[in-house]
Every structure is written in structure tokens, then in C-alpha cells.
Fold this sequence. Notes:
Distance between the termini: 40 Å
Order of helices and strands: EEEEEEEEEEE
Number of helices: 0
Number of strands: 11
Mean pLDDT: 94
Radius of gyration: 13 Å
Strand content: over 45%
Largest sheet: 7 strands, mixed
Amino acid sequence: QVQLIESGGGLVQPGGSLRLSCAASGRTFISAAMGWFRQAPGKEREFIAAIMWRSGLAYYGDSLKGRFTISKDNAKNTLYLQMNSLKPEDTAVYYCATSNALNSASAPRTDAYNSWGQGTQVTVSS
């Protein structure tokens, strides 16, 4: 069983930056990849990015690539999401998740992920 704990969310002004972290514990060594999703009230969960744990190959959702960057620290079993130039429409709960197998086609699908964190709230407002 993998446990995922997100942190780093909060209130930020438009144009600001935040870095989210996702600390993984448990059976992380068998997780092939990890990803970030977000969900705003009344909307479906949206894919942000995913990264292959060994190779570092990253997949991004088309709408957010360029402002958001996914990275990882294998030694710390920690996933990161650097978010820049934040906009009010980025307000959402952000989730990390693990997957045992990903490719470019499956990365955006929530059913490709088997463990999820509890989420961290990001609010972009002046």
C-alpha cells in the first residue's frame, strides 16, 4: 500500500508561484510513475502532468504545459509540481497519484492511477 501526502497549497495572488510536494511512503519502489491532477468545484478531475519514476520522462496536459513543471526526487520519494504565473482559474484541489504503468495515451486518464493522495487546496485570488 502506498501513502501519498500532498503539501504546499495555499492562497496566492494572481501571477504568483507555488510549489507542491507529494511525499510517498510504502511500496513506492514498485510504482512506475506518478502524476498530478486537479479538480475545481463542479468540474471533472483534470490531468496536469505525470513523470516516469526511473527515466524522468514527463507527460503534460496541453493546457498547462509551460506554466507548470513536474519533477521528482527519487532519494526522497517525493514528487513536485512547480506552478508559475498562476491564474484565478487555477484554483482547485490538487492531487498526486501513483501508477504501475503509463504511456502518453494513458497518462491523462484517472483510471491509469491506483493510489491517490488526499489533495491540497490551491486558491489564486487577490
